[in-house]
Amino acid sequence: MGLVAAFIQFFLSPFRALARFVGAGPARTVEKSGAGYVAKGAGEAKFAEDKGGEPEGVSFLFKRLARPMLVERTAADMTLEEAQEVSAEAAKFYTYPFPLFARADAFYEEIEQDYINAVLGRAEGSADANYLRIMDQFRRELNANTARLFLVYTPLMLAAAIGAALTARAMVSPAVEGAAAASAVIAVSLALLMLLYHWPYKVTQQQNLLGLDNYITSKFSRINQNFQVAKRRAMNVERNMRMPQAEQLKAEAGVWTVSYQWFAMRLLFCEMTVRNTLYQIRRNTTLYGVAGMAFSALLAGALAFAASTAGLAAWWEVAGAGAFFIVIAYLVIMAHATRETLSVLQPTEWNRFHLVDLHETIRDHVGEDKLQIVTFRDRNRLE
User: Sorting pLDDT into bands at 50, 70 and 90, what band is 29?
Assistant: First the structure.
């Protein structure tokens, strides 16, 4: 495997140089300015807004997406009125009567995503509406790029390879040399497909996913930061208040308590959206591969029949060449398309839901309040 990897690296080196020349930088260049860098600043008081814009460099045959823009208010700048809006969003979640009888014309993850969209207020333009739209856009475009490779470009290259092989065989004699020429044409076609897969397909997909990883890292870190701020305000709201402000204290404590719980739940639902998106990408890639193999097999069969009818070659020779191309293309060259593209994601750098320790926060919050109540009660008894 090491020799194969070295050969691929050597074979692709001129084309990577061309990619750098036209502006499509290597994936690790994007990574340096992406998730790792943002994760280091996760503990800072504020985040600079990520600027979305035109993609860096140029990609052809496959779509390259711009880096998403983060739109998320910081809790440090949040007023009580804005916290009340957050609390109202939480109330919609806690009182949402999700349908028990879901529609039967969709996959499970789509039903789950419909629920997430509803509780996160996508239709109402909530703080997470842009995030949900971006995740949906990336899912569609990443799937579209894979569909182009598996369902369009690969069958077209198969047809071109068989046509070129038949032409080479007809132009070269005797029959043994013609067969060798046809085999060489098939080998060159597979090499071109390998080039197409590694660049621009894989490079484009990885750059898209690195931009998405950057955005998810920033989004999760911002929500986690807001959770920490709201938690501190909820646990310390009584410090600057006196007994005449009891009603105000009660209202503010409730607002900030519900707010920090809602920030944690938002993080959970955003994380579930990532899971649904990645699952759909994996599933669709598998389906595209199966459909591409089936379509290519039908195409090879049709070409074999046409070649046999025209007297250019025996049908089994064309069918065998087509089968060889299909097996190498789908089961060798593109066999690990999902794993190789999704490997650039860095979920270990995301501030995920299980890291906020919501249960510990609630336990400490309630325990501290109960302790103060008992202490105040016993002090009054002694007096």
Answer: very low
CA 166 – CA 153 distance, rounded (Å): 20
Residue 201 DSSP one-character state = I
* DSSP letter string, 251-310: HHHHHHHHHHHHHHHHHHHHHHHHHHHHHHHHHHHHHHHHHHHHHHHHHHHHHHHHHHHH
How far apart CA 86 and CA 233 sit, in angstroms, is 14
First to last CA, the chain: 81
* 326-362 per-position pLDDT tens digit: 999 999 999 999 999 999 999 999 999 999 999 888 8
- Mapped onto helix, strand or coil, the DSSP state of residue 144 is helix
Q: Which residue has the higher pLDDT, 154 or 176?
A: 154
Phi-psi region of 103 (alpha: psi -120 to 50; beta: other; left: phi over 0): beta
Instruction: Count Cβ atoms within 10 A of the Cβ of residue 352 and give its class: 0-12 exposed, 13-18 middle, 19 or more buried.
Output: middle
Ramachandran category for residue 121: left, alpha or beta (phi over 0 → left; psi -120 to 50 → alpha): left
Name the pLDDT band for 177 (thresholds 50, 70, 90): low
Token digits for 171?
A: 């132009």
Q: How far apart are CA 38 and CA 47, in angstroms?
A: 9
Closest CA to 216 of 347, 340, 31: 347
Q: What is the predicted pLDDT for the residue at 378?
A: 62
Q: Which one is predicted more confidently, 278 or 33?
A: 278
More confident residue, 61 or 297: 297
**Can you give the residue ranges of every domain in the chain?**
2-40+81-382
Residue found by looking up tokens 């607002």 in the block:
255
Residues 6+ apart with CB under 8 A from 80: 252, 255
